Amino acid sequence: MASSHSDTANIIDMQGICKHYQMTEKTFCALNDINLSINANDYVAITGPSGAGKSTLMNILGCLDTPSSGQYHLAGVPVTQMSETQLAHIRNHSVGFIFQSFNLLPRATALENVMQPLVFRFIAMKARKARAAEALRRVGLSDKMHHFPSQLSGGQRQRVAIARALVTNPEVLLGDEPTGNLDSHTTREIMQLFDEIHDSGQTIILITHETEIANHCYRVININDGQIVSNTNHMRTEKCPIAMEQVAHV
Amino acid sequence: MYSSLLATIEGFRAALHSIRAHGMRSMLTMLGVIIGVAAVITVVAITQGLSYSIKQQLDDLGSDMVTIRAYTTSEQELLGFENTLSYDDFLALKGKVSGLEDMTAMMQPFSFGSSVRFGRNSTHTQIIGSDSSYQNVVRTYPQMGRFLSESDDLRRRRVAFLGSSLIEKLKMPDSPVGEFVSLNGEWFRVIGVAETVGSFFGFDQDNYIIAPFSTMRSLAGKEVTRNIDIMFRPSKGASLPEIQRQITQILRKRHGLQKDDPDDFEFRSAEKTKKQFNSVTQTVTLVAGGVVGVSLLVGGIGIMNIMLVSVTERTREIGTVKALGAPPSFIMIQFLIEALILSLLGGLLGILLGYGFAAFITLLLPNLTEVLVPFWAILLALSFTTAIGVIFGLAPASKAARLNPIDALKYE
C-alpha cells in the first residue's frame, strides 16, 4: 500500500502546535509548542506516561481535533483552519484509524465494517465489496468476511480494524494503543502485521505506553507534559526480536 | 447536488441497515404512529362508509323526490299557532304546477293509532293514507299483488298495500294477497306487498301499510286529516326552483299570506337531507380526526424520544464513523431518514391495521356495507407521518451530527 509521496517527503509537518483547554478558572495546556515532522514510510511510536498529551497529539494528527495555535500540514495540506466537514474528508482520505478497543460496528459483518469508510466516498457497491474483501485478504481474514465482531477473537477484530484502516489507502495509519486489549501472542501477531504493512510502504504512527511496542518501531517520540522530550531514530537490524520475545512471554 | 443525492442514497442504506439491526426497538418506536394512524383510518373509514351507505339509501329513497310540509315558526308556536297543509291545498296544486312527473298527498291518521292485526297477531306499524301516485313519487313497487289504483281512491275501497316485513310480524301466509287485516277495528283487504327495502340503521323501512287516501279520510274524519304532506317528483330536466316558485305562489295565495309573512310550509328533499348529513359527517370526521391527530403527535414524540435514546446509545458508533470520515451532514441525513422511514413505515402499517379494524367493525354493523378509506385520508395520514418523521427526527439527527468525534469515541 505505497504512499503517493516519495520516501523523503513529509507526510506530517507540525510547527509550534499548542492545545489549550479552558478549565473553570485556569487554562490547561495539553500540548505546548510541538514541532514534528514524519516522513513517508516512517514507522513511529509516540510514547509517554498517562496525561503526557499522547491522545491529544493523536487527535490532532488524525484530524479529529484542531490545535489552538500552530501550523499542521498533513500530506502537504494545511488542516489547522478546516471545518468539521473538511476534516471529515481528510480523515476519510488521508488517515486510517486503529483503536485500542477496535471500534467495530457490532451489527455489521467484518466485510461491512471494512466497507464503511468507502461509504463516504460514494464508491459503487461492487467496487466497495471488492476493495474490502481485498483488504480482509491482506490481513488474513478472507474466511471471516461474513462474521460479526462478536463471532471473532480480539486479534481477529483488530485485524478487521486494520483492514478497515487500510481499505482507503491512507497517507498515514494511526494506531491508538492498538495492542492494548490483546494478549501477548496476539500482540505479536498484530505487530508482525504492522511490520508487513510498513514493508509495503505505509507510514505508521502508533501511540503506546508500552516500551516493547515503542522499541519495535524505527523511531520513538517521547512526550511529557505536552512537550516532546526525545525524538530518536531506532535502528533495528531485524524486527525487534528481543522485544517481541519479551512480549510473547509476559 | 450529485453528492447530496449519493449521500441520501447512502444515508437511506445506512438507515435501513440500522432499522433492521435494531428490529425490536424499531417496532416499538413505530408503535405510537401505527396506533395513531390506525385510529385515524378506522374513524375515517367508518364515518365515510356510514356516509356512503346513508347516501346510497337516500338515493334509493329517491333523491329527486321533494316533500312539502307545513312549517310553523317558533314564534308562531309560542303564540299557539300551528300551520297546516290541507287536502284542498293538494287539490289546488295537482295539475296546476308545470314540470312535475307526479304529485301525491300523504297522511298519517293518528286516530287509527299504529296497531294492525291479522287473526290473533298484532303489531305496530306506520299507517299511511295516499293515492295511486304515491307509487310513482316514492318509487314503491309491489313484489306481489298490485299497488293502490285510482279507482280504489275514488271508490274509497278498504284495501291495503303492505310493507314486506308485516308478513313475518303478523305471521301471514307467504302470499297474503286477498287476506284481511284490521286497522283500528276496520277491515282492509290486502291487495299487494311491497318489495323489500331493508332497514336503515335499525329502522325497519318495510313496516308500513298504505290505504287509499279517501278511505282513510272518511274513516278518520276531517279533523285528524287536517295536516297532510304533499310529495312530488319533478320531470326529467325540469327546474326545481321554478317548480318551487309556482308552488310557493299558489300556496301563499291560498293561505292569504302577506308580502312580509314567512312561508308557512317548507320543501324537503333527499338532496337537502344528504347535504345536511354530509355536513354532519364532515364535522364528525374532522373532530374525530383532530382528536386522533393528537395521538399521532404523541406517536411522533415517541419517535423523537426513542431516536434520542438511540443517538445516546450509538454515541460510540457515531464517533467511529466520524473518525472514518463521515461528515456531519451524512450523520444528519442518516438519522433523519431513519426517523422518516420509521414514521412512514408506521403510517403504512397503521393504514393496513386501520383498514382491518374498519373491515371488522363493518362485519358488526349490518348497515355499513363497505369499508371506504378515501384516497385523501391515506394521503393525509402519510403526509402527516412524513411531517412527524422530519419534525421529530430533526432534534435527534442534529444531536448526532453535532457530536464531537473525540467525546463520542470516548463514550462508554
Automatic annotation (TrEMBL), chain A:
<keyword id="KW-0067">ATP-binding</keyword>
<dbReference type="GO" id="GO:0022857">
    <property type="term" value="F:transmembrane transporter activity"/>
</dbReference>
<dbReference type="InterPro" id="IPR003439">
    <property type="entry name" value="ABC_transporter-like_ATP-bd"/>
</dbReference>
<protein>
    <submittedName>
        <fullName>ABC transporter ATP-binding protein</fullName>
    </submittedName>
</protein>
<dbReference type="InterPro" id="IPR017871">
    <property type="entry name" value="ABC_transporter-like_CS"/>
</dbReference>
<dbReference type="InterPro" id="IPR003593">
    <property type="entry name" value="AAA+_ATPase"/>
</dbReference>
<dbReference type="InterPro" id="IPR027417">
    <property type="entry name" value="P-loop_NTPase"/>
</dbReference>
<dbReference type="GO" id="GO:0016887">
    <property type="term" value="F:ATP hydrolysis activity"/>
</dbReference>
<dbReference type="GO" id="GO:0005524">
    <property type="term" value="F:ATP binding"/>
</dbReference>
<dbReference type="InterPro" id="IPR017911">
    <property type="entry name" value="MacB-like_ATP-bd"/>
</dbReference>
<dbReference type="GO" id="GO:1902495">
    <property type="term" value="C:transmembrane transporter complex"/>
</dbReference>
<dbReference type="Pfam" id="PF00005">
    <property type="entry name" value="ABC_tran"/>
</dbReference>
<comment type="similarity">
    <text>Belongs to the ABC transporter superfamily. Macrolide exporter (TC 3.A.1.122) family.</text>
</comment>
<keyword id="KW-0547">Nucleotide-binding</keyword>
<feature type="domain" description="ABC transporter">
    <location>
        <begin position="12"/>
        <end position="250"/>
    </location>
</feature>
<keyword id="KW-0813">Transport</keyword>
UniProtKB/TrEMBL annotation, chain B:
<dbReference type="InterPro" id="IPR003838">
    <property type="entry name" value="ABC3_permease_C"/>
</dbReference>
<feature type="domain" description="MacB-like periplasmic core">
    <location>
        <begin position="26"/>
        <end position="250"/>
    </location>
</feature>
<keyword id="KW-1003">Cell membrane</keyword>
<feature type="transmembrane region" description="Helical">
    <location>
        <begin position="375"/>
        <end position="395"/>
    </location>
</feature>
<feature type="transmembrane region" description="Helical">
    <location>
        <begin position="27"/>
        <end position="46"/>
    </location>
</feature>
<dbReference type="GO" id="GO:0005886">
    <property type="term" value="C:plasma membrane"/>
</dbReference>
<feature type="transmembrane region" description="Helical">
    <location>
        <begin position="284"/>
        <end position="309"/>
    </location>
</feature>
<dbReference type="Pfam" id="PF02687">
    <property type="entry name" value="FtsX"/>
</dbReference>
<dbReference type="InterPro" id="IPR050250">
    <property type="entry name" value="Macrolide_Exporter_MacB"/>
</dbReference>
<feature type="transmembrane region" description="Helical">
    <location>
        <begin position="330"/>
        <end position="363"/>
    </location>
</feature>
<dbReference type="GO" id="GO:0022857">
    <property type="term" value="F:transmembrane transporter activity"/>
</dbReference>
<feature type="domain" description="ABC3 transporter permease C-terminal">
    <location>
        <begin position="291"/>
        <end position="405"/>
    </location>
</feature>
<comment type="similarity">
    <text>Belongs to the ABC-4 integral membrane protein family.</text>
</comment>
<dbReference type="InterPro" id="IPR025857">
    <property type="entry name" value="MacB_PCD"/>
</dbReference>
<keyword id="KW-0812">Transmembrane</keyword>
<keyword id="KW-1133">Transmembrane helix</keyword>
<keyword id="KW-0472">Membrane</keyword>
<dbReference type="Pfam" id="PF12704">
    <property type="entry name" value="MacB_PCD"/>
</dbReference>
<protein>
    <submittedName>
        <fullName>Multidrug ABC transporter substrate-binding protein</fullName>
    </submittedName>
</protein>
